[in-house]
Amino acid sequence: MTQNILNNLEIKSFEKEVHREYQKMESELKECVRYRTIPGNKTQFPKLGTLGATERIVATPVVLNNQSAGSVTIDVTKYSVAQMTDIFLQGEVNFDAKQESAMAVAAGANRKMTQIVIDCFEAQRLLGYTNTVGVNIGGNNTSLNVPKYAEAAKKLDVNSVPTTDRYSMIHVNAHHSLTLENNVSSSDYNSNRVLESGRIAGYYGFSNKVIGNLSEENGMYKNANERFNYFFHKSAVGLAVNRNISVDITYENLYTSHLIVATFSAGAKVIDEKGIVQVSTYE
After folding, report:
1. Cβ(184)–Cβ(200) below 8 Å
2. CA–CA separation, 139 vs 196, rounded Å?
3. Which of 51, 209, 219, 264 fits a disulfide with 214 by CB distance 3.0 to 4.6 angstroms?
4. What is the spatial distance between Cα 280 and Cα 144, in angstroms, rounded to a whole number?
5. pLDDT tens for residues 51-62?
6. More confident call, 131 vs 213
7. What's the count of helices (H) and strands (E) in the chain, helices before strands?
């Protein structure tokens, strides 16, 4: 079997393995935002204003509304995950090593996809959010607690944000502090068996997405002791993907090894910042 034939066979096999692992660990934040696959390198998400009803008077023309309309443009950026390996040489493929490499490539791509979404929240924070919940809600220099959930929900309610499809992107430290809240962990107040599972999937109408350290990525941002978490509606953020993860394998004679490169392109941006609440926690 020639090296080229081996490469072609292994590319197909390995790419399927990467896709499988990628889907297993697919970025949790992907389901929380408006997701779109696009053919080019940019796309526009529409942003429409509200319409008001007027009294209908018989035999008179209907009153027309002048609905405001705009759009938010999202540019996609190209990314790659690459490593050199000799696990494919001479056709003696070690399946465990192959699977481990597939998992490593997929995990790297997924961490970047998660970071892309986090970065769009951070970019808006630098511009400023209308809705914020400070570190002193529920006490002095507090972590995540019930009053902060209530305040975040209230701010979205005031802006008539739908009560469905609400999410919270919280740091693992904030989540851990929340599990220590008696009103949350005790079965007297909460039917979820928090002390048994150690996880709080949702609370106060928000589905929780807990983010920990993302290895080489920045993860969730903080300023000194202030960590920035976000409570938001799905329609407030857009994620565009031009190229789903794809794998190429080439043989490098100089290194007698194979170069594995996974590529994809994506971008994210806040569409409506009034559908987002920045919640600060103290660490």
Report:
1. yes
2. 27
3. 219
4. 8
5. 667 777 777 787
6. 131
7. 6, 13
* Mean local confidence (pLDDT), 115-125: 96
pLDDT of residue 52: 66
- Cα torsion angle, 80, 83, 84, 88, sign: negative
| 6 pLDDT more than 60 | no
The helix/strand/coil state of 174 is helix
Site of tokens 């660490």: 283
3-state class (DSSP) for residue 119: helix
pLDDT of residue 148: 97
In this predicted structure, what is the pLDDT of residue 89? 53
Question: 262 with 247: CB under 8 angstroms?
Answer: yes
Q: Does domain 3-282 have CATH number 1.10.3470?
A: no
SS3 42: strand
Contacts 24+ apart (CB under 8 A), 19-26: 19/106, 19/245, 20/102, 21/99, 21/102, 21/103, 21/105, 21/106, 21/107, 22/106, 22/109, 22/110, 22/245, 24/106, 25/103, 25/106, 25/107, 25/110, 26/110
Q: Which of 116, 93, 96 is nearest to 238 (CA)?
A: 116
pLDDT at 261: 81
What pTM did the predictor assign? 0.81
pLDDT at 2: 39
Contact (CB, 8 A) for 88 and 10: yes
Segments making up each domain of the chain, as ranges: 3-282
Angle formed by the axes of helices 95-127 and 3-24, nearest 10°? 50
Tokens encoding 259: 């170069």
Q: Which two tokens stand for residue 109?
A: 């791509």
Structure tokens, 122:
């951070």
Radius of gyration of the chain (CA): 23
